[in-house]
Inverse folding.
């Protein structure tokens, strides 16, 4: 029995990733440079190249609409050392 793996289309804008609601079968996106096998790979590729990725449905964080790809720097003061 062949099980079709579905991928979500992901858009990146202003440092955050969000699902578009469009889904594709694995065979459609697997040779695409935007096909990601993990959330970590999605974050790395988005930092390097911008927009247009595909991520397996089960790898998106549950109950999460957007994922922040850029974290603000926290500066430690010299007083804390």
């Amino acid at each position: 029995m062949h099980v079709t793996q579905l991928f979500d289309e992901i858009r990146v804008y202003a440092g955050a990733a969000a699902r578009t609601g469009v889904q594709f079968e694995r065979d459609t996106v697997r040779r695409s440079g935007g096909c990601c096998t993990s959330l970590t790979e999605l974050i790395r590729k988005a930092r390097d190249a911008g927009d247009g990725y595909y991520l397996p449905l089960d790898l998106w964080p549950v109950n999460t609409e957007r994922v922040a790809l850029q974290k603000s720097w926290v500066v430690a003061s010299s007083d804390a050392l």
Observations:
- The chain has a mean pLDDT of 82.
- The longest helix spans residues 39-49.
